[in-house]
Amino acid sequence: MRATEGDQFVQHGRVVGQHDKVGEILEVMGQAGNPPYRVRFEDGHVGVCSPGPDTEIRHRTAGEPRP
């Protein structure tokens, strides 16, 4: 899984009723877009994350403003 700064990091809820956690990738710490990533989540929490099977990277399109 590869990402760039500004992409969205989405951790899907694992159980019924659990909401997805959505964050912005602030820093790609691995080589060539590989994990780990420094992510700022919507609640303001910043953490270092490596994507698992319940994670999706949503890439920004060219010209799309940063959130």
Write a structural description.
There is one protein chain. This protein has one domain (8-58). It is mostly beta strands and 67 residues long. 0% of the residues lie in helices and 37% in strands. A five-stranded antiparallel β-sheet has the order 4-3-2-1-5, with no helix packed on it. The protein has no helices and five strands. It starts with 7 loop residues before the first strand and ends in a 9-residue tail after the last strand.
Helical segment tally?
0
Please give the domain count.
1
Question: Low-confidence segments, ≥5 residues, pLDDT <50?
Answer: none
Q: Shape from CA axes? A: globular
Q: Approximately what portion of the residues adopt beta-strand conformation?
A: 35-45%
Supply the helix-strand structural class.
mainly beta
- What is the percent of helical residues? under 10%
Look at the structure and give the mean pLDDT.
91
Tell me the series of helices and strands, N- to C-terminal.
EEEEE
Largest sheet: 5 strands, antiparallel
By DSSP, the count of extended strands is: 5
Q: Taking Cα atoms only, what radius of gyration do you get, to the nearest Å? A: 12 Å
Span of the ends, CA to CA: 22 Å
For the biggest β-sheet, the strand order reads 4-3-2-1-5
Protein name: DUF1918 domain-containing protein
InterPro entries: DUF1918
Pfam families: DUF1918
